[in-house]
Design goal:
The structure holds two protein chains of two kinds. Chain A contains two helices and 23 strands. Chain A is mostly beta strands. In chain B, the strands form two sheets. In chain B, strands 9, 10, 11, 12, 13, 14, 15, 16, 17 and 18 form a ten-stranded mixed β-sheet that branches. Chain B has an eight-stranded mixed β-sheet with strand order 5-4-6-3-2-7-1-8. Chain B contains 24 helices and 18 strands. Among the domains of chain B are: 179 residues, no CATH class; 129 residues, no CATH class; 166 residues, no CATH class. The chains are: A mainly beta, B alpha+beta. Chains A and B meet through strand 4 of A and helix 3 and helix 4 of B. Chain B: Keywords: Cell membrane, Membrane, Transmembrane, Transmembrane helix. Chain B: This is Putative ABC transport system permease protein. Chain B: It is a multi-pass membrane protein. Chain B: It is found in: Cell membrane.
Chain lengths: 349, 800
Amino acid sequence: MNVKILLLLIGLLPSIASAQGFAGLGTEVDGFAIPERGTNFTFPQDHAAHPDFRIEWWYLTANLTDGAGRDYGVQWTLFRSASQPTGLPEDQLWMGHAAVTTEDTHYHAERLARGATGQAGISQPLNAFIDDWSLASVASGNKDLLSAIELTARGAEFAYRLNLTADGPLVAHGDQGYSIKSSSGQASYYYSQPFYAVSGTLNLPDGDIDVTGTAWLDREWSSQPLASDQSGWDWFSLNLDSGDKLMAFRLRSTSGDDYTSGTWITADGTPTAIDNGTIELSPIIQTTTHGREVPTSWSVKLPEKDLDITVEAVQPDAWMDTLFPYWEGPIRITGSHGGRGYLEMTGYN
Amino acid sequence: MNRVIFSALLSHWLRHKVQFVTLFLGLALATALWSGVQSINAQARTSYDDAAGSIGQRGYDKLVSENGVSLDDFVRLRRMGYLVSPELEGLLAVGADRVQLTGFDPLTSPPRVGMASLDEQGLFAFLSDQGLVLASPETVKTLTAFWGDDGPIVQVSAEVPIGQALTDVTTAQSLLNAEYLSALVIAPDQPFGLPPITDLDGYAVIPAQGTGDLAQLTDSFHLNLTAFGLLSFAVGLFIVQSAIGLAFEQRRSTFRTLRAMGIGLKRLVTLLAVELGLIALLAGLVGIVLGYGIAAALLPGVAGTLRGLYGAAVSGDLSFDPVWAISGLAMTMAGAAVAGAQALWRVVRMPILAPALPRAWAMSSARTLRLQAFAGLGLLGFSGILAIWGSGLIAGFACLASLLIGAAIVLPPITNAVLKMAGKLPRSPLGQWTVADTRQQVPALSLALMALLLALSANVGVATMVGSFRATFVGWLDQRLAAEIYVTARTPQEAEDIRRFAAPRTTAALPIWSVEATLLEQNVDIYGIIDHPTYRDNWPLLQATEDVWDEISTGQGVLVNEQFARRNGITVGNTLSVTDTWPLPVVGIYSDYGNPHGQLITALAPLESRFPNRPKLRYAYRIAPDQAGELARDIREKFNLPASAVVNQSDVKKMSLRVFDQTFLVTGALNFLTLGVASFALLTSLLTLSTMRLPQLAPVWSLGITTKALSKIESWRSLALAVFTWILSIPVGLALAWVLLSIVNVEAFGWKLPMYLFPTDWFRLGVLAVLAAAVACFWPIYRLRRLPSAQLLRVFSNER
C-alpha cells in the first residue's frame, strides 16, 4: 500500500513514466502483466513474489506498547521492482525499509539489493528477506503461511525481533482483491492480514524493551504507475476499539480531483469496499518536519458507519529520510471510536 | 535646471578624459580584484565540498581474507547484518594500453565519484548483463576503439580520472576474468547490536588509508585563500577611497564656480551623489566582467589543484554566481559611498569663494595625522593583544584584520615623521624644498601609499606563507616517503610473495605495520618499525634523546608526533602507557604535518607480540631510485595490483609538487594583480597631483630650476616613497605570514607550520615596487617635462 515504489519505478524507468498517461486499464506495459478484475487469489502461492508484475511489496506496520503503557510503532517493508518482465532473479531490484517510532524519536533504516545474489528475495516456504532483515513464516501444519510470522530488522540505532500470530482471516480489498487506484482505472492486486497479535523485543540505544500489540500486513502488486496527475498518497490503517478495522486512502491529484477509497472490515473479517468519494479525509494540523509541511492530525469521517474520528500522530517527526522520502508512523484515534493505527503520507516533497 | 548643472559637472570629465578613465578604471579594477578572488574562493569552496561529499575523505576500512573474498562472502556477511560492499580493482589490458578498472555494487557501496553522471536508466544498464563502464572522455575513446560493439556500454563521466574506469562488480569480474574480489568495503556505521566486524574469523580488516592528511593540508590552503580574499577587499577599499577622494579634490574649482553662480548646496550635493552612484555602478559592472575574466583564467589552476589532490574532478569551468557579482558591486558602491560621503562633506564645508589652498589643507591635516597615528597604533596593539591572549579562529582573523588596517593607517604619520626628521638633513635649499614638498604631498598620496603597502605586505606575507607551506610539504613527503616504493597487498600471503619477488632487486623491505589503540582517551595509530637507516637518516625529530634510534630499535622507548605531544603536554623523558601493562619512556617527538591524529612509533617486535594476528600487508622497498619505476611496474603486472596499491615515491612527489606549484600560480597571479592595481592607484594619485601642484612648482621654476631638473626630483621622490613603503611592508608582511601560520593555522587545525624566510623574494618584490612606482610616475613626469613655460607663468596670474 505504497506509492513510493511507483515513484521509484517512475524514477528508474523514465521511458515508462512518459507513457504512464496512456497506461490505462488492461493496457499491457512493456510486456508486464496487468491486474485483471475477477482474478481470485491462490494461497500460499500469492504470498510469494509475482515477477511477471513490475512492482510488489510486503508491508507490515505494528502498534505496540511497553509495560509502562508507552506507545511504539514498528514498520517493516520489502519492495520488489523488476527492470524487465523476464521473471529472472537478476532483473529484480529489492529495497527494504524498517523503522521504530517512539513517543520521543523515530529511527529508520534502508537497504538495497539486486536479485540473483541471494542478498534479498522470497524463499520457500515463505521468507521475505533483505540482508539480515526477514519476515518469515513460522506457521505450523496446514495453517496459512501468514498466520504466524517472525519479524526481524536492524538499523544503525535500533533492532527488533517480533512474533506475530493472526487471529482472523486474510482480507481482500476492492473487488475481491482488485483495488482501483484512480478514476482512470489504474489498479493493483491487494490483500491484507490485519489481525496480528504481536509480542517481542525492541533493542534501542537505551536498552531492550518488551512490547505487545497489534500489526497489519499488506500485500500488493501491480504494473501500473499512478495516473499522471496524481502527486501523492495518504493512507490509513485503523484498529478500532470496537474490533472493526478500516483501511482508507486518498490519492491526491494536482487537478484537485482526489480519489478516495478503502475497506471496512468487521471484527470477524468481513470486508466492505468503500467507493470513491464516500470517505472524508481532511488534515487538521500541519507539522514541519525535515523541511516539509506534513499533516500529522486528520479528521476521518465515514457517515454510513457513524464514524467521526480524529487521528493524531504519536510522533510527528516520523519522517523516513530514505532514497524516496515519505512520512510513516503510528497514530492514536479519538472521537466516535477509540483505537490505534498507522498513517503513511507520500508526495509531500 | 538639474540637467544643466549635471551637464556642467559631466563636462569636467569631457575635458579631462584621462581623469575620468583613471577614476573609472580604478573603481573597475578594485571591483574586479575583489569579485575575482571571491568567485575563485566560492568556486573552490564548492569544489572542496563536492569532492569531500562524493568521496569519503579518509577512505573506508576494507575486509580481506587469506584465501581471497568472493561475492559469496559478501552475501554471507550481508545476511549476518554487516554493511559491506564488494570491490574489485584490476588492470584491464586494452590493446597496448592499461586501464585501471574498479568494479563495485552501486546498491550497497558508499558514495563514489563518477556515479552522479549516471541517470536511472543508466543504473539498470550498469546492473545488466551487458554492463556499463564509466570513464573519462579520453579513456572512453580508448575503450570504444578496442571493444567496438561487443563490449559493455561505455559512457563518459568527466569525474573519473584519465586511465581509470568504473563498472559494476560483476562486469568487472568478467572483464578481468577474476573469481575473487579485491576486498569488501566496510561502511563506517555498522548496524546496532552486532559483534565488531574485526572479530570475524577468517577475515582481516585493512584500515582506511585515506587522503585525510592531505585534506587537512588543502583545508589550510583554502583557509589561506579566504584570508587573501579579506586582504584584496582591504586593498580594493583603499583604492576606491583614493580614486574618489582625488576626483573630488580636482573639481573643487568647478564646485566653487557653480556655488558662486547660485546653485544651492543641497542640489549640488545631491547631483554629485547621483553622478558618483552612476559612475560606481557602471565601473562596478565593468569590474565584475573583468573579475569574471580573472577568475576564469585562474580557476583551471585551482581545479587542477583539487583534481590532483583528490583524484576527483572539479570542473575548471567557472559558473556565474550572482552572489559574488552582487557582493562585488555592493563593495564598490559601499566603498564609493564611504569615500563619497567624505568628499561631499568637504564640499558642504567649503566656503563659497574659498581659493585653492593646498598647503593650508595639508597643514590642517596634521591633526588628522596625529589621529591616524593613534588609531593605527591602537589597532596594532589590539592585534598584538589578540595574538597573545586571543583564542579561536575569529580572534585569529580579527588579529589579521587589525594588523593590516593598523599598519596601513600608521603609514602616513610614519612617513611624515620620517620626512620631518629628514627635513634637517639637506644643506642645499633645493634639497630642503624637496623634502618639504614631499611632506606636503603625503596626505594626498597617503591612500595610494596605503594601498601599495597593503599590496606589498600581502605579497611578502602570502609568499612567505606559501613558501613555508611548500617547504613543509616537501619535508612531509620526504619523511613519509623516504623509501622508493610502497606496496599494499590484498592478503598477507600475497604480501609475502611480493616481498620474495622483489627481494633480489631491493636493498631493504620495511614493513609498514600499525595498530589502532586508545591512549589518554584518544585514538592513536601505533607504528612498529625495524631498525634501518631510512628512519635514522630521515625522520624529522623536533626533540629527542641522544641515543633515540638505539632506544627505539631495542624497544626501550617510543616516539610521539607533535600533535599528540602538544595536546597532552608530553615532553621527552615522560613515560607513556602504550597499553595497560606496557609503559615506555618518550624518547623523541617528531613533526607530522597535516595529520589530525595522534601517532606513536616503537620497535616492531614488541608491538607485534602484544597485538598478534594483525595481517602484514604493506611494505616499503628501498631500491636505487632509477630502478624504482621498473620494479613498481613489474609488481603491478605480476600480481595484477591496482595502481593505488603500488606507489612509486618519485611519481607521488612529482605529482604533489606539481599540484602545489599550481597553487602558487594562483596565489602568485593574484599577488601580481594586487600589486598592479596598487600601482595604478599610485599613478592616478601622482597624475592628479601633477596638475594640482603647479602652484608649488611655478615659484621654484621661476627661481631657475628647469623642468628637467624638477622632473628628475619628482622621479627620485616617487621611487624613494616606493622604496620606503617596500621597506615597511617587509615587517608587516612577515607579521601577516606569522599570524597565518602560527595563529590562524593553529586555531583551525591544531598544528603549527614552521615559518621559513625567503629574503631573495623580498628583493625581487623591492625591484617590482620600484618598477611599479617608475611606471606610475612616468607619465606625470613626462607631462611635467613637456610643460610649456606659459602654463607655469599663468599660475602667477591665475592663482595669486
